[in-house]
Amino acid sequence: MASIFDQGLEPTDANHATLTPLDFLVRTASVYPEYPAVIHGKTRRNWQETYERCRRLSSALSSKGVGKGDTVAAMLPNIPEMLECHFGVPMLGAVLNALNTRLDAKTIAFMLEHGEAKVLIADREFGEVINEAVGLLDNPPQVIDVNDPELVPIQKLIIH
After folding, report:
1. Domain CATH for 40
2. What are the residues facing 142 on neighbouring strands?
3. 75 pLDDT more than 60
4. How many domains does the chain have?
5. CB neighbours of 116 closer than 8 A, spacing ≥ 6?
6. Would you put residue 142 in left (φ > 0), alpha (ψ -120 to 50) or beta?
7. What's the rounded Cα separation, in Å, for the pair 143 and 118?
8. What is the pLDDT of residues 116-136, one digit of tens each?
9. Is 101 a domain residue?
10. For residue 95, is it within any domain?
11. Are 81 and 102 in contact (CB under 8 A)?
12. Of 86, 137, 139, 142, which residue is the least packed, with the fewest Cβ within 10 Å?
């Protein structure tokens, strides 16, 4: 027997709204536009700036031919641009394929091909492995480089 709470509660405009992470971004940028959203080294952005950057990313991807159902791969560490990918890519109806930064070139190439990535957004930190992976593909995605200003080059360890 159905509970009284299960009766007459079919979704309608009055009692149901589908929520997505994009809705939360829009609301947060509207309600708390000046609150800090990103703190990364010297970079500071509030929610309004973050929302605007996500929209610009979405627009830029659209101008590169990315649309609903297309795949955008990202090989980025935990930097502001990765946050922007998590919102900007779905704004288009596209799919974000976040690649593990520890993968080798053959695995990355397989994932790019299998996921049919149209665009790959990658931190220059991973340039060597990305160039190798893209070189293995017959139909490589467009590559967008990200330059993290907080990246400190790792010194090679010299053993005496």
Report:
1. 3.40.50.980
2. 119
3. yes
4. 1
5. 70, 71
6. beta
7. 9
8. 999 999 999 999 999 999 999
9. yes
10. yes
11. no
12. 139
